[in-house]
Automatic annotation (TrEMBL):
Classification via InterPro entries: PhaG_MnhG_YufB
Family in the record: Belongs to the CPA3 antiporters (TC 2.A.63) subunit G family.
One GO molecular-function entry: sodium:proton antiporter activity
Protein name as annotated: Multicomponent Na+:H+ antiporter subunit G
Keywords: Membrane, Transmembrane, Transmembrane helix
Record's signal peptide: none
Keyword Transmembrane recorded: yes
Transmembrane segments: 6-27, 39-59, 65-87
Organism expressing this protein natively: Kocuria marina subsp. indica
Length: 125
């Protein structure tokens, strides 16, 4: 049983590292700030779950289970809030969208067509 936990723990840690590497590749290759923030936020949440769960399987104990659950919960909450705050600040400062992206925030609530043109700086109260 110990060998199975060791192998599974190492596999999860390597999977988490690959998720982080994919996020780094996304940051380098994506064209605008919004896609980069999305890649990092998503991969950060998934990668940390893999790595911490893998570490738990390598050192299993009741106290470590409590710590891992707490770590994952806090990280997922703060990561989502942080990612949205960064994306919102990029939008409010007028960071342009690329031509392949739509500015859904600029469309009104009446359902007007989305404009594939780059975003213009929004009016801030």
């Amino acid at each position: 049983m110990n060998e199975i936990l060791t192998v599974l723990g190492n596999v999860l840690i390597v999977a988490g590292a690959l998720v982080f590497a994919t996020a780094a590749l996304g940051v380098a290759r994506f064209r605008d700030a919004y896609m980069r923030v999305s890649a990092v936020g998503t991969a950060g949440g998934l990668g940390i779950v893999f790595v911490v769960t893998g570490a738990l399987l390598l050192q299993p104990s009741v106290s470590n289970v409590v710590k891992v659950v707490l770590i994952i919960t806090i990280h997922l909450i703060t990561s989502a809030v942080g990612t949205m705050a960064i994306a919102r600040s990029a939008y409010l400062t007028g960071t342009p969208l690329k031509r392949y992206a739509f500015d859904e925030l600029a469309a009104d609530s009446l359902g007007t067509e989305r404009d594939p043109e780059p975003a213009r700086k929004p009016a801030v109260d």
